[in-house]
Amino acid sequence: MSSAGTADLLRLEGVTAGYGDGIVLDDVSLSIAPGESLAVLGRNGVGKTTLLETIVGNTRLRRGSVHLGGRDVTRLSPHARVRAGLGWVPQEREVFPSLTVEEHLTVVGGGGPWTVARVYEVFPRLAERRRNYGNQLSGGEQQMLAIGRALMTNPRLLLLDEPMEGLAPIVVEDLSRRVVALSREENLTCIVVEQHPIVALTLSTNALFLERGQVVHTARSEDLAGDHETLDRLLGVGDEPEGAEPAGAQGA
Ligand SMILES: Nc1ncnc2c1ncn2[C@@H]1O[C@H](COP(=O)(O)OP(=O)(O)OP(=O)(O)O)[C@@H](O)[C@H]1O
Ligand SMILES: [Mg+2]
């Protein structure tokens, strides 16, 4: 076991964490090997964002450890974790109204493989919008910018918190394709938090379900995509009251 975990890009062991005196995550363990990507699924308020915030180092850790690329980052600040290879795309996209697209990107540029030009290759729309201010962008453009800004920190592991929230279906489709291409072509590992399982499962190789801060189920994404029973049970998708009437029930 001496080399256990050294091959994993990310490894959480027995992580219990929360905010102030409150505990949200309860004994969470997970690992992601290079080339894998993880969907974190679960209903509202189960601790999905808190899991990402804990990986980034923004919560109060009570027990357990976080390893990134074989290195123990449990005691490192969020800033140091970003330097160690974590790219963070928060749920609130944190796009600034008074900065242009290009300024958002150059502010974080840190002398690695990712440059503004490469971000524009991944998201040509951002190149067209380079002189526009944050408050002139659509929701989809803001999300591309939030991802582009995270790429500028040259991450090995990209954390995406509900990247498709509030976006039109056609934008979701386009953005999904780009994120999948990113993780394949740029050899970038992603953790995607999503409430919508179909999107999350197309973006990931593995999936994990949270319930009240605990991991209650894990599966391969491709297996889960067709497993409606499990999705229904853990997410309550497909709950359609009007369809739930027993056969033979008669409306007057
Ligand atoms: N900054 C905070 N301070 C205190 N409690 C918090 C904070 N952020 C979240 N919580 C609490 O932690 C629990 C989990 O919240 P979290 O945001 O992680 O859930 P989530 O699964 O991301 O939910 P959603 O699907 O709504 O985004 C909730 O009870 C929430 O009230
Ligand atoms: Mg959340």
Task: Work out the helix count.
Answer: 10
Mean pLDDT: 88
Order of SSEs: EEEHEEHEHHHHEHEHEEHH
CATH architecture of the largest domain: 3-Layer(aba) Sandwich
The count of strands amounts to 10
Indicate the CATH class of the largest domain. Alpha Beta
Shape: globular
- Radius of gyration using CA atoms only: 19 Å
Account of the protein in words:
This protein has a six-stranded mixed β-sheet, sandwiched between helices. A four-stranded antiparallel β-sheet has the order 2-1-4-5, with helices on one face. It is 33% helix and 25% strand. The protein has 252 residues and is an alpha/beta fold. It folds into two domains: 1-85 and 159-237, P-loop containing nucleotide triphosphate hydrolases (Rossmann fold, 3-Layer(aba) Sandwich), CATH 3.40.50.300; 92-154, no CATH class. Residues 1-5 and 238-252 have low confidence and may be disordered. It starts with 9 loop residues before the first strand and ends in a 17-residue tail after the last helix. It is globular. It has helices at residues 48-56, 78-83, 101-108, 116-122, 124-128, 139-151, 169-185, 197-202, 221-225, 228-235, and strands spanning 10-19, 22-32, 38-41, 60-68, 71-72, 86-89, 157-161, 189-193, 206-211, 214-220. Magnesium ion binds at residues 48-49, 91, 161.
